[in-house]
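Title: Request for sanity check on Small ribosomal subunit protein bS18 prediction

Description:
We are preparing a figure and want to confirm that the structure record we downloaded matches what your pipeline produces today. Could someone re-run it with the sequence below and paste the raw structure tokens into this thread? We only need the token string, no images.
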Amino acid sequence: MPRKGRGGKRRKVCQFCVEKIDQADYKDVARLSKFLTDRGKIIPRRISGNCARHQRQVTVAIKRARQMALLAYTTE
């Protein structure tokens, strides 16, 4: 039970675990773009709600998608 006056925000859950996706794919640009800010930065785990395992996979997948020119590094 959350304490009074301490925020009481609900813990976010990992979307990959909920949907039972075992591997983050660099070709799934629509899913990966949800983990990027409008400036092109990767959203950290504490904000996105991903578990540690999937956050590492998302980071590598975003970097691979950028290398393959599927995602932009920055916005102009």
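Thanks, this matches our download. The chain has one domain: 15-68.
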